[in-house]
Task: structure prediction
Amino acid sequence: MADICRKLEGIPLAIELAAARVGSLAVAEIASRLEDSLGLLTGGSRTASPRQRTLSGALDWSHDLLGDPEQILFRRLSVFAGGWTLGAPEMIVLDDRLSGKSDVVGPLSGLVDKSLVLTGGTGDGKMRYGMLEPVRQYGLKRLDESGETDDIRRRHA
Result:
């Protein structure tokens, strides 16, 4: 179970939804299937609101509250698997819809404020950013839906 909690990065709803699978899957089977946590973690209480029934539903609700620049940046940042420093997205995600450094800092601050992006120090006075893996998987899904995946991955490479 500790492996599941670690893979789900301590997200309470995700852990609750994984625990609900124990009746039909062994703990090791649940852990091995968490590469697609958004697909596996469904089926919350029927009396709960839609955003509390699935991890994807909760993330849909959060995503819908974002402004356009935050949505664009959020999905594009999902290509960074191990996190990033501020300079990286400025080089990769900018285009005519997000065109300058200030167009990254504002939406990035909004994503941090909404806990979709996490921060930590690097030890050299810089900030390091990242996403919890289930949140990043959701961002990749949104990136695919936008049709931007190939372009953003090419820039990232």
